[in-house]
Each structure stands twice: as C-alpha cells, then as structure tokens.
Records
---
Amino acid sequence: MHERIRHEGMLQKRMSAGEAAALIRPGMTVAMSGFTGAGYPKAVPEALAAQMEAAHAAGEDFKIKVLTGASTAPELDGVLARADGMELRLPYMSDPALRKRINDGELDYMDIHLSHVAQHTWFGFYGDVDVAVVEVVGILEDGRLIPSSSVGNNKTWLDMAGKVILEVNSRQPAAMEGMHDVYYGTALPPNRKPVPILTPSDRIGEPYLRVDPEKVVAVIETDAPDRLSGFSAPDEASKAIAGHLLEFLDHEIRRGRLTDRLLPLQSGVGNIANAVLAGLAEGGYKGLTAYTEVIQDGMLHLIKDGTIGFASATSFSLSEAGVEEFTENVDYYRERILLRTQEISNHPEVVRRLGCIALNGMIEADIYGNVNSTHVAGTSVMNGIGGSGDFARNGFLSVFMSPSVAKGGRISAIVPMASHVDHTEHDTMVLVTEQGIADLRGLAPKQRARTIIANCAHPSYRPALTDYFDRALRDSYGKHTPHLLGEALSWHERFVQTGDMRPAS
Amino acid sequence: MHERIRHEGMLQKRMSAGEAAALIRPGMTVAMSGFTGAGYPKAVPEALAAQMEAAHAAGEDFKIKVLTGASTAPELDGVLARADGMELRLPYMSDPALRKRINDGELDYMDIHLSHVAQHTWFGFYGDVDVAVVEVVGILEDGRLIPSSSVGNNKTWLDMAGKVILEVNSRQPAAMEGMHDVYYGTALPPNRKPVPILTPSDRIGEPYLRVDPEKVVAVIETDAPDRLSGFSAPDEASKAIAGHLLEFLDHEIRRGRLTDRLLPLQSGVGNIANAVLAGLAEGGYKGLTAYTEVIQDGMLHLIKDGTIGFASATSFSLSEAGVEEFTENVDYYRERILLRTQEISNHPEVVRRLGCIALNGMIEADIYGNVNSTHVAGTSVMNGIGGSGDFARNGFLSVFMSPSVAKGGRISAIVPMASHVDHTEHDTMVLVTEQGIADLRGLAPKQRARTIIANCAHPSYRPALTDYFDRALRDSYGKHTPHLLGEALSWHERFVQTGDMRPAS
C-alpha cells in the first residue's frame, strides 16, 4: 500500500501538477490551503502559473480568484502574481510580488477578518467555489485526510468546492497525525449552537478532514518543505517593547487583575512577538496557555521549557530546525498543541470567553488610539488585518506594538490622525513602543492623547505632536476629539512627497 | 404592606431624594440606571445637581464620574451637565446640554461598545464604583428587585457598587414583573461558560435583580414617567431608505441566503428604523424575531400584529401611548418580550450565533465603506457608537443607513474619507441612502468606491466624488485604496469654515 495515500480510489487519481492545473479554467474561484506560510500547495500553483503565462503569451485571458486561509509563500502568491493570474485575492497576503501588483492597482484584494472568511463563504457572499487545492499529510483508507501544517479554511474549502485537488506532501511530518481538531459542529443561523471550548486544550472535533471522494479530481504527490526561515535575534527596539509589556503584565498581576498564569495569549508574528515570548520565559512564567493563530519556533521553545503548557492555533509555521525539533520530540508536543480551523481559532465567541491577551503589531496609531494595521500612507496595503480584529475586539486586553519610528526616523508610528483605521478607539487598550507604554483603559480622548504622546512617541516627534494637539485644543471645531482637519494628514502627505514625515529643516 | 416596597428593612431606608443625594460626594464614581431614555433615576440626579450648584456657588468643587447603561434624559444627563457636575461620563449619551459641554471640551466622555461596559467594570478597568443609583419597579419581600423599563448595566452596578440607592417608581407598570431575564451565569475568564441562548426567546436567567440589602443606603419613592415622545411619521427619505432595504431583503430571500422568517433583527432607533419596521409589516412578513437593544412603539405595533413573534431587548422605550397599549395588553406582550442585561443583549457570542441582521444609522461613510457613527467633522461627538459595533461586527448582515445629504444639502453623507472611523471597511456590508443601496459583500476597495458613489451618493455630490476618485486612481501613492491625502478631508474642512461641504460657486 502507498504509505501516504491509503485510499484506493484516490490513489487512482494521481497525476502530474500540470495535469491537475489544467483543470483550473479562467474566471474560476479557486480556494487554496495555506496560513502564514505553512501548509500551502507546493506544485499546482506553479504549474498553473506556467499555463497562465503560456495563455497570456498566446493573447488569451487567464485569471482566477484566489481564496486562502491567510498568507502563503512565493510558490503560490508569488508565482501567480508574477504570471498576472489573479483578478481577486482574499483574505490576507504578505508576498512582495503580490503586494506590488495590488498597490499598483492591477489586482483586486479583499482584506477580511480571518474569522469571517469561512462563514461568509458558507453564507454565499463570495459566490461559488469552483475548485479547492489543499495540501495534506496523507489520505486514510476511508478517504479522510490528515491535515498538514496549517488547517486554516481547509474544512470549508473541501466542503464548498465543486472539485478538489489534493497535494499529498511527504515532506510534512507524518507525526502530525492526531494533532488537529477539526470541528464539524458549525451550522448556519438560526441553527447554531455554542462552540464548546472552555479552555485552549479542549478538543471538540476530529483529527481528520472529511472530503467526498467523488469530488476529488486529482491527487498530486509533493516533497517540498514549507518555505519558512528561522527568526533573527530580537533587536533592541523589540526587546525594549517586550520589556515594557512584561512590566505592564507584572503590574496587572500585582493589582489583582491577572494571575501569574495570565490568560490565553494571542501573539502575532515577527520580531516583537518573539521578543515578548522570550521575555515571558526569562520572566519565570510557567504553565501559560496560548489561544492563537500561529505557532512558530519561539513558541515551540516555550512549550519545551514549560513556560507555555498548552497552545491552540491554526498554523504550525516552523523553520526547518523547528520541524526537526518537533519531529524528534513529537510525543511531547502532541500532548501540548492543537491545530484548529481558523473560524474556531479566531472565533469571537471563544476569544471573548477565554479572555485572550491580544498582542498585535501595527503600522501606526494616532494620538487618540485609532490603529492602522494595514495601509502605508492610507493607500498602500502592507499585508492585511488578519486576525488582529478578532482578538483585539474580544480579548481581555488588546495591545498594539510598534517601534516608535521606522526608516531611520523618517516615519513616526505615532501620528496626529491615522491615515487608515483598522482598530478604532473603542478597541485599543494598550499601545507600546520602545519609548514606553500607554494604558488607555478608562481614558477619554484628550487624556489618551496626552498619554500616548508622552509615553509612546519618539522624542524627535514628540514636540510636533504636542504642538499639533495644543493647537487642536485651541482651534478644533469640536473639542471632544480635537483635530486640525487641514493638517491632520499632512505628515503622511509630506512622507509621500519627500519620503520623510519630518518638515525640511 | 407597602405595595411596591415589600422588604421591611428597605422600607425603613426610605428618605428624600435630597437626603439620598447627599450620600454622593465629590470625586465619586456613580453608576446609574438608564438605557435609551428608559428606566433612569428620576429624583436623585436632580437633587444632586442642586447640591452641586450650591457647592459651586460656595466656591467648592463638586464633580463626579457617571456611568450608565446608555443614554438617559434631561432629568439625569441634562441637569448634571447644566450643574457642571460631571468630570467623566460613559458609555453613551444623547442629551443636548451634555453634548454641548463635551464638545466645548469641558468634560471627558468615553464612548464604549455597549457590550464592553459591564465586563470592563468587572475587570477593574474603570476603578471602583462607589454608589449605584438604580430605578426599579418594586422590591420583593426577600429583597430582590423588580427591574424597570430598562435593565442595561443594572445587574453590574448593583453587584459592584459599595453603596446602593434605589428609586422605586410607582409610575412604571407593575405589569412588567416577570418580563426580565437577568443572567447570573457570567464569570471572569478563565471561568467563563457559553451563554446558553440559542434563539431570541430563550430564557436563561431570573426575572429579578439581586442586591445585598446591607448595601442599600437609601430608598426613594418616585412617580414620574420616562420622558419619551412618540415618533413622528417617517419622512420621504426614511421611507425611500426602508424601501431599498426591503427590496434588498426580498432579493436575499430569492437568492436563498435568507428565508422569509429572515434572521433576528437588530434595529437602531429613530425615523429610519421606524420606517423599516413599518415596511416589514406592509411587506407581509410574519413571525419575525428581534434580538436588539430597544423596543419602541413601532416594534410594539409589529408584535401586536404578528409581524414580530418575539423580541429580546434591554430597554423598553415607550411613549405614554405605548405604555398604555402595553399595560392594556400586558398578558399578550409578556409572552413575546424579554428584557435582558446589556452584556447579554449585545453579546458578540450571541449576536454571531443568532446571525442578527444589524440595521444601524450613520453620520457618514466614505467611498471605501468606512463608517463614521459618532463624530461630526471628525471632532464633535454626536451620541456615541452604542451597540452598533457589537452587532455590525458579529451579525449575519451589517447595514448602515442615512439620508444622502443633511442640512438642506450642505452636508453629504458620502465623503471621500470618513473624518472619524467607528466601523471599518472590514465590518460594513451594505450602505443605504434614499438614493439606493450599495451591496459591498465580496467587493474590493475600488469596486466598493464605484458602487457607493453610483448607488448611494446624492446627485449633487456624485460628480465631485467621481472626480476625487478618478484623480486618486491616477495620483494616489498606493492604488489599493486610492486617496489624495491633501484633499481627503477638505470637504469637512470646508464645512467647518463655511457651514457647507460644497465649494463656493
């Protein structure tokens, strides 16, 4: 028997990536696996891109709509973007080639709360899903699928798609079998029931994905790793941000608002998140939990040393070293990690019930605490809102973090008015930069402004922010949230014109 | 036995409103009942305001922090604002005198998602609650309280306050006894359980509020009605908006995305909401449900005629005629109405589970669908976000409605860039003006802009919006969400300077 493809019918459907890609036709809506660079299909998108380029060379139109869990990798978003093969992409991306096309206006992109994607598909808001392309670790005798390094929206794609293409990736550790929790208890309103998760370790579903074998039109064997690099060591700014945050958490424990087990952590990805995780380990925390989207190398280390006792996520985004560590100690990790579908990992109901501590990055915040997570200068999208809204709105604490300046000081992360708003003043509790922390809980707008300017702004921008706020206090039309409308976006305008938010001296 | 105060100990605590008000001292945090002009204390705030004015006349400082459910009435917000007696007000207001003080910068105001207020108080984010002042219909022999015409945050105020002042209002119909559902199953994380509501009519709590009789320091007898006026008949714009919305709902039914029972309605207050409700009745709908914040006269009519089979809310905001109708037919209404605490009426978990159809007003939307619900010209607060965010983020549908112009055409409700954002592009599905409807589901930013300008903008502003968008497409820094930063807020700036968004001709 084939080691990874144990279902006889599906074994018969093996074909090349090129043959499978040929089943995807122009104008189709294609839903693919992949979340934070993990578990995306490795072969079909590249073959499809080649066919698109051939069609374009022959003067034919060939574009599709692409839905995923979240971000993927150059082998998916990169190749399809370079082939100019997408007319619509949702709900999240981080690929440089794709980003450029989007911001050049050549491609439509929908930036969606990650908890909304599955249900909006069920509701019919995005139309029919023609084809699903999903990476799996293996296929059982009965046709059920062993999910790969991310679950994302795969349950939804397999359920909703008219046709299914499976990529069976033998490079993904077979040891992942049993670590997933796929919940089939969802329903459409008015027939919904509570999601029965009371703690991050609660198992509520099945370890396998279901698929109707009749819908499977192609099975492709692949052998390529997720393309994830290990993290570089945190820089000074990230360490300082982590330091402020950890001091704040200590303060909350002393005030009795948290225990030393904290509450389930949701942590974004990247340098700052890693520095925070490292700080938690150094701070002597033990037995914490995570209810989050992504498990990266840093969190694996914390699970290993007992800082984190259990982690629930939807994606396992590990470097090759991380995969090796995981594989060597799989019995240990299997007891301490669950991967869920993203409508559950990010579910507002569960996030609010558990009282997550939501830790997310930002591009900028304004002096009133409105946060821009997505758009540079209000117009050019960076990645997307991802799950930050699911967690920030519903968590026990919503924290947004960024270095106070970028590009060698030419950009301030604290601005008079955010050039795009993803998280409103109603949803932001704590801002942190390497300068310090602004605890906005219980503060009205003008109190927020004073706190943010004093605690979070870089000293090189603080006088200009203070000057803006003082003049707005005097001259604003309304004095509840004072602004000078003719000047509120002038910092961004200057950046667009000169590459620098600072006035020419 | 006293008809309304059947608990002997509390009967002994009767005193005048002035004596009770004297228990409130400068600097205290005072939590009061009241939600949408219903169930607010009628006597103590006025007596307190008089004492504040006397103190101020004597050169003494006397300000307090005031927390409520939502908006109250002139007898609470009005008198305390005129007495300059508040240093902080949260989470919502609609009183003209208070609004003026806030926008003159004389008073801090926090505008908070209504589902967040109770839990943020439990979490300790607003500090201690010194005194609660809560209107009730009566006090039982065992000390439990019959809630009044709104429940709001009263459970939380009674639980959290150090001292409790009760106003027993004999004008409120005794017949309301038994119509409330106060849920005592909440907890702090990590001990939370699912909220067991599966349908709007599910009763999960008790009909009475609990209070520790030891904490009750004063009982005041009052006899004044909620100050609510009946609604005027919908104007032409409201009728047109309702017409577009009803046509859209019909379309969703034909597409199979809704049944003719729709899904539980959440409906804001005011002219447009009333026109929508009237339209549902005329459209022949039967047996609908509401899971909403407020039941007004219009909804009472729909319950009477069977259009709505059951309504769950937190406030019963009726005119005197409405109260009369309710009292005459109380046995009928009691089977069809529940009033809950506002952390339950607005709970994201329940709103998402039920799949509410969220219908809310707005001040303005920009061409990308970002909605401003709160701030005129970005700086001057109107009322507050209220529960619109709780429902819009979590509902099956999120609809925002407004006439396309205000002030005789001098203000456009569709603008290049929202001057304040309460609901982001990620949370707005449908915009409606009397001009038409923009269905934004499945649309990327530039597609949204074209749809909103074409369908919702007033013809007198459409050319200027099209011109802005076209030039932004050409000249914007990023072409994902094109904007001209130097011009994006110029309409608001012109309004502030000239009282008119239109350029001088």
---
Amino acid sequence: MALNTRKTSRLLTPFAQQIRRYAAPGEGTVPPSKKKYVPTSGTYPVGFVVSSTHVGVKASNTRFDDLALVASETPCSGAAVFTKNKFQAAPVTVTRDMLKRRGGKGIRAVVVNSGCANAVTGRGGIEDAVKMGEETDRWFDGEKDDGLGSRSVVMSTGVIGQRLPIQKILSKIPAAHSTLGSDHDHWLATARAICTTDTFPKLLSRSFTLPSSPNTTYRMAGMTKGAGMIHPNMATLLGILCTDAPISPDPLQSLLTAAIDKSFNSISIDGDTSTNDTVALLANGAAGGKPIVDTSSPDYAAMQETLTSFATDLAKLVVRDGEGATKFVTIRVTNAASYTDAKRVASTIARSPLVKTALYGKDANWGRILCATGYAEGVDSVIPDQTSVSFVPTDGSPELKLLIRGEPEAVDEARAAQILEAEDLEILVRLSEKKGEEAVYWTCDFSHEYVTINGDYRT
Amino acid sequence: MALNTRKTSRLLTPFAQQIRRYAAPGEGTVPPSKKKYVPTSGTYPVGFVVSSTHVGVKASNTRFDDLALVASETPCSGAAVFTKNKFQAAPVTVTRDMLKRRGGKGIRAVVVNSGCANAVTGRGGIEDAVKMGEETDRWFDGEKDDGLGSRSVVMSTGVIGQRLPIQKILSKIPAAHSTLGSDHDHWLATARAICTTDTFPKLLSRSFTLPSSPNTTYRMAGMTKGAGMIHPNMATLLGILCTDAPISPDPLQSLLTAAIDKSFNSISIDGDTSTNDTVALLANGAAGGKPIVDTSSPDYAAMQETLTSFATDLAKLVVRDGEGATKFVTIRVTNAASYTDAKRVASTIARSPLVKTALYGKDANWGRILCATGYAEGVDSVIPDQTSVSFVPTDGSPELKLLIRGEPEAVDEARAAQILEAEDLEILVRLSEKKGEEAVYWTCDFSHEYVTINGDYRT
C-alpha cells in the first residue's frame, strides 16, 4: 500500500514550509511576493467609518481581530448578491430578508465575523445572525424604529456546522462601535479582520466622477476575502463595497448584479461555490451631486463602468491569493456566437484540473486548453477548424500562437518557456474569425500546495 | 517569488519516487498494491483472436508493444460510443463513419496504437486512420469486397497534435496478424499494449447464459485503459469488449449505449473528457444459440444486465488506476426526484477538488460534500432540510451518519478516521426521506502525485 509513503511525504519540510497558518485570520505576516498588493494609503468614501475588534470566535485565536464593522454615518442604500448554493448559511438568509423587507433603504452597517460560518446551523443559527444585526443597530443612536427591523448586513465566514459563540460576539459590538474610524489604518485593519486563510488583506479605493456632476469627486472603497475553502472551514468569498455617490436602491442592485457577473462571478479558484458567498454594496450619497435614481441616465452607465472595473480589480486580488497559487491567469474567449458561450468556454478552461496543473508545470499545453474548450457544456458554437489558441504575455510582447484555425503551430518552446516563467499569463481562445462576443475569466494554477492545504487534517 | 521554492520541491525525492514512467506503454512493472487487479487466467469468447506488437510509435519506445489487434474469426456485429468532445480525433471520426456506413455489420477487427493520439492532425490524420483500418482489413483473407470500405475499428491514444508514424505502423500490421492467438497471455499482452500512463493492464472476462438458450454458455472479455491525461499526451479512455453471443447491430448499439451510461460515463478522474474516448463492442455469435435481434426479448434484458455489470467492473478498474489515486470512492445518491438529478449531484461531488483533496487527507469533511450537493447545476430538487450524508464502510460495518435531514451529527472522529484509512469508501447522499431514483458514480482522490504527474515538464 502506498498510503504510508504518501502520509509521510505530506509531512516533509518543503510542504510544511508552504502551509498556510490557519489558526487565526489576519495573521499579519504577508508573504514578500504579495506585499505589492497591500495598499499603504487610500482615498476613502466620505461618511463611512470602519473598525476591527478581537472576539476570539475560534477559541484558538487569542490575538487577531475577527470582527469587522463597516458603517455609514447616515442611513444609506444597500444591495447585495449571494451564493447560488442550495445550502445557504444563516447570515445569507437573514441579510437577504432584511434587504428585501427594507427595499434596500435605510441601511446602516455591515457586521462580519470570521472564524465560524454559521452555516448548517438550523433555526438557532438564524437567531444568532438576527441578534448580530440587531445588536449592531442598537449602537447607531437616534435611529427611529420604523418597524422594518434590523438595518445591518450580516456576514460570517469560517467553520461550517458549528454555532457562533454569539454572546462573545455580541459583547464586543460596543467595542467595535467605539473604535470606528475612517483613516487608512482603520480600513486596512478591517479588511484584515474578515480574512480566514487569505495570506494578505484585500483592500482597494479610488476616486471617480459622474457626467452630470463633473466637479464632484466621488470615492469608492472595497474589501474582499477568499479564496478556496479550507478544512474544516468552508471559506467564503465576501466583498464589501462602499461609495459616497448618491444612488437609489433599485439602480444600486442592478449596478451590483451586472458588475458581479463580470468580476466576482468570473473568477475561479477551484470551481467550488461556498454556502456563504456574499458581496454587498452601500451608497450613502455623502459626496452630494445628482442622485442616480434609474437605469437610463448617462450617470448610471458611467457608474456601471466604474463599478465593474473596480469590482474586477477586487476580484482579481482574490485570485492572486488563491490557495497554493503560483500563477495569475487571464482566460479571454473572443469571437463567440454569444456572451454565454464565451463565458462557458472560459469557465470550463478555468476549472480544468489538467489545464491548471500544466500551468503550474509551466507547460505550453495547448492540447488541454483545446480539450476543455471542446467539452464545455451547453455550448454548440465551437467549431474545431475555426478555433485558435494563443498565449499572450503580459509584458506587451507579441502573442505566441499555438493553434490557428484548428491547425497546430510549430511552437517556439524557448519562447513558450519564457512566457510561462512569468507569474501573469493570458490564454486567448478565438472561437472564430468573425467579430463576436467576448468573455474574460481569471484563475490560478493547481499546485502541490493546494493539495497540502486542502488535504490537511483537521486540527 | 515563491516560484523557485516550488520548482525545487517538485524535484525532491518523495515525488520523484511516485512519478509514473511515461516513456512507454506496457511498462510491465505493476505496483504491488495493484497486482490483485491483474488476472492470471480468463475465460475468453470463442472466435476472437488478439495480439500485441512493438512498433515504436514514440521514438523513445524501443521495447514495449504499442500496437494491439483484436479480431473476430468471422465478420461480426459492432457498436461503439465516442467522446462528446467537439474536438474529435481522426480515429473517432473514421470509426464512426465506418460503423454508420456498414450499419454495424461485417466488422472484422479493432486496431489500436498507443503513443500518439492522431488528434488535431487535420486531413492528413484522417487519411492515416483510414490507412490503418484498410491495411488491417487486407490480412483477413477471403473477405469479399462489398463496396462498403473498411471493416476495422481504429483507435489511437497518446500525444495530441502529432501525426502518426503511419508507415511504421502499417509495416507492423502483418506481424500483428501473424501472432494472433486466443489464450490468456495473448489477451493480457494486448490489454497492456493499449496502455499509456496506466500502471497496470485492465482486463476482465466472464461467462454467462441467456434465458432462451439456458444450456449455451456465452463468454465476454473486455480491456480498457485510462485515466486522466498526461502531458503532452491527451491520454484517453479506450475500451474494447468482445462477446461470442449472437446479437444484431441495432440491439448491440442500444445495449452498449445504456451500459456505458451507467459505467464508463459514471466515472470521473479529473472531470476532463478527452478527444479520443471510444468504447467498442463486438459480438460474433460464435457460441451459437438464439440471436438477439431486437430490444424486446427477455434475452435482451438479461444481456443488458450482464453487459452493464461487466462494463461497470471494467470502468472501476480505470478509477483504481486514476493518476495519483490513493482512494477508490463510490458516490451513491439516492431518493432523488429523478435519475438525472441524482447523477448530476453524484457527478458534482465526484468532480469537486475540495471533496477529493479531503479524501486524500482522510478527512470526514461532510461540509464539502454538502456544499457540492448544493451547487450541482441544473438540479432543482435539493432541499437542505431533507438531505442526509453518510460514510458507508465497504467492510460491511454500519454506516457513519454525518448529517441527518440537514442537521449535523456529532461525528465519532475515531470511527471516521478508521473508515477513511481504508482504500475503499462509499459516500451516501440521501436527497429525501422518500423512495426515489438512485445514481452511482465512482471516483478517486486528488493527491500530490496527481499534481506531479500532470504538472510535469514535457520531456
């Protein structure tokens, strides 16, 4: 039996060195190669305050902040998108109900714990999530009770099938409220508090303008965490985006839904979808200017472009931190009969273990890319002798053609090896010679470390 | 950058020891743990002869047989099922056309080379596949030319995007014909010749009877190869089944199609589907008895049961030899609203990298199983609070319940660890409390060795 050999090999030094430390979120020791993705300053939206607090949701976490609070100083518009998994965690159910009940109006805060997902926890879990929201509300003075219940978005990430230590969490919400602040250090610490197996906090901010108020500067900030799931956790993709632009709830939801489709729903670490995935967007209008009240204005279109681009940059950070990832791979499928076909092909390539292990091995294996293109489900428009595959280097040098209209090229192996040495790579699949629809997906490779992380024993 | 660390770690001894030797098919050194799956005798169908011959399709292969020939002594019925990949290899196209042209009648042989897949090779590749079939035909004397062209099924497996060394292959077909024989050693050598990255040859045989001829003994033999794809190969699932029962082409095709759906189409190594996958079934009627000419007879039903069971046992051998596999996992989904729903859920669990790495880590991670159940695409009938998950040991001891109607059980970790130590395991997912449809899938785990094998540089 090979089992003993295998068991031993997993404990050997090279893997041990690569293993992430799971004990606590926000470990703080960012790997040197990831430091460039952690901002040292930012431009944050007016009227939002944030904080991070230590609870110790996991008993083993005695040091690191695991409670995050993001609040608007005034009631604001809120929207969210959720996992499509049939097994939805309690905070997903509670937040969805809350936004529906309020019509996305009068939202005050997002409260997040890491360390426990509050998933598959039955009725008790629902009650815990409701309590987290209500206790958060209580600290925003002067809010008149409008009979619509909680005003807080609730998120949880961490171990599945365990109840939250709810009293510990509730007892720390006053501290979370009293330490709210708006400077860069507050935002970065808050972004760190939502992490689980992430190796670096994921935070972005930017300024923008809208056509109807060209002299008004708006700001947007967002934090996210990923990526992949780590046992016995079901780690989760969470995102919290805030803007001081004035946007009504209805257009806010449609802006977010469209932006997520091309960003957070266009990334893949391992193809698994967690029970807790949630991305929320708050807009408090604190910067003034003309409100966006419907989907027909030029402001709406401009806002869509800004939001989609911003959400895409945030989502890419999740891929950068994919469990065990050594590569950041853009998969671009062009000249497709429809956007749906293009996205299905891109998604199938992004999820193929054979493509992902070849990328880990720095191997110009166009055969596996072609093969995944050919078995994408629900796609009828793939025609072998019209399909071309190239590697596109991200340094601006010319693409390396691997397959042209179904015919293999004689590949310059030295050039291929050079391209594959880089961390970043684009795989370009043209489904025809005619102009058509395009979809982009972002993914990472499958490494030994992925197996080590996800095959590890519970501790 | 972590790249150098990673690169070094891949060259360390524990992996090097586990790496399969890719240089040639039929290496012959079966790992000790797999020896029990290689038969030392068999009962083979009357009127079939087989052989294996060395060609050296890969220039580096100077020793191992890589050409297999399976022939019926008389013209027989033939049927086949093929990959659904859009990029179909030349032998797939040529064989499909041949069977259609002949209506599955008058088939004489199956000719297979390993070492080169003849895939994505354009018009020249088609011509090569046609030549392989025609040259094979030529050696079956006395065959009158009926104007319908070749009578041979052609299969190839190995590197993609390269032309076959067709002259070398054609020059060895006379030798393949002259060494045809029907004893166990012939069958085993032939099963070995179709292998690529397989660690053991996969051959089964059995006897059976049919209701209308209770005193006639029929025999069936089959060989197959898998599993997963190895760079720069696109290894392929091939299967060749022969029986001396008398079955007309139409019922033969429907028997095979139904059997494959519950056997070869219910296994997953890595979720990738190759360009060359082909399973062929020949029936020469040499054992006599009443012919099966339609789908309505009791003989047909009995034959279906025998064939499905036989094909399932063959398909399971492919999973036993999954690249890097340390576990053999049966996924049984019961009490479903439909067979399709059950199969989609089973397939989704079987393909989840998180489930597969947890199994490698011997981890009772029901959360990942539940999560995969919840994101199975196209399934509307999953209801969280009616879903139960158990581990079923294969030693006959009682099941270990992990989740009952959506509520987590307090898991006996010692018992779970004991169950997960075994090579074989069944995961049982009950989608409701009501009797319903059932689907079974077989899969293996994802190990470091899988990544090593598939991330390896081309040599």
